[in-house]
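Box 3.1 A note on notation
Throughout this textbook, protein chains are presented in two layers. The first layer is the amino acid sequence; the second is a C-alpha cell string describing backbone geometry. Keep the layers aligned when reading.
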Amino acid sequence: MTIRSLIQEMRSRPHRVVHEAASTTPVSEPFRWSELPDELLREILIRVETADDGDWPSRRSVVACAGVCRVWRMMVKEIVAVPELSSKLTFPISLKQPGPRGSLVQCFIKRNRNTQSYHLYLGLTNSLTDNGKFLLAACKLKRATCTDYIISLRSDDMSRRSNAYLGRVRSNFIGTKFTVFEGNLVPQTRSSKMVKSRSSNLMKVSPRAPSGSYPVTHISYELNVLGSRGPRRMRCVMDTLPTSLMHPQRAAASSNSLRDPPLVLSNKTPRWHEQLRCWCLNFHGRVTVASVKNFQLVAVGDRETEQATSERIILQFGKVGKDMFTMDYGYPISAFQAFAICLSSFETRIACE
C-alpha cells in the first residue's frame, strides 16, 4: 500500500480530525503533506517504519519522510527506535549511539593503501563480498611525533572544521598508546559543553564550557614477548561509559555513588591450536585470514586481574582479504567508537612487533 492510497483510506473513515481538516481546506487548493493531521501522519510514518525489512536501501523511505519538513522530521525521530533497541542504523546520530544488546551489527572496512584511507560500510547481507552501505571514512595523517586518523561522515571531506567531522584517533610515537577524541556531530555554541547523562548514557549539552573535541577512549597495546608470532594484548578504557552498563544489577547502586569507574575492554585471549600451529579465536565465519590484527574485545570485570565479566563479544575485528576487514560491534559501544578502536589496529607497533 502506497502512502497516497493510505491517505485515501484514512480519509474515508469517520475520523473527527480528518473531517475538520477537510472542511477547512478548499477543494481547489493543492494537497500539502505538511498539513496532515498529527494522528494521521503518525499512523502513516509508523507504517513506513515497519514496512521495510530494516536494511538498506529500503531504509531510504524512512529518511525521505524525515526530510519532508520539520514536523515530519520530529515525528520520525519519535517513532524510530535507537540502535540499542532496533538494531537499525537510520540517521547519522545512530553512529554515535550504542549498538544492539542482543546481537552484533555486522560491518566491514575497506583499506586503500595508496591514499591511506579507510571506509566503513554496513553489511547488507551475510555475504562478505556485498557492496554495503557507506557509514564512515578515515584518513591517516603521519606526523613527526604521532599519527592521526581523522574520522568523517564523508569520504571527500576530511577537514576538522567541516560539519562532517566526527573525531580523530591519535597515537604516540611508537604506536603503543592511542587516544580517541570525539567531536560534536552538530555544531554547538561557544558556551556549550558535552556531558554524559547517567539516566540515558548519551551525551547532552551543558551551557557552561566551550565545545570541541574531547577524549572518549584510551587504547593501549602491551609488549609482545613473542614478537609478530604471538597475539597482541590490547586494553581499551571507555572514559564516557560507566562500568555499571555491563552490570544492570549494580546500576541502581551506582546512581547514588559519585565513583563509577569507566568500562574497560580487553582482547579475548586466543588459544594455541596444536594441529594448525597457530593462535585461534572463534569468529563464527566472519574472519577467514589469519592476522595479528584480528581481535575480540570483552568487558573486564576485575580491574586487578583483568578477568572478563562474560564471554559476550562487544567488538570483533578480523581480516577477510588483502585490504578487507570485518567489524562487528554491539552494546554498549557505538559504530564510531568501534571504528576508532579498529583503526588503532592498523598502526605498526615498533615496540610490540
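Residues 196 and 203 are 5 Å apart (CA to CA). The radius of gyration is 23 Å.
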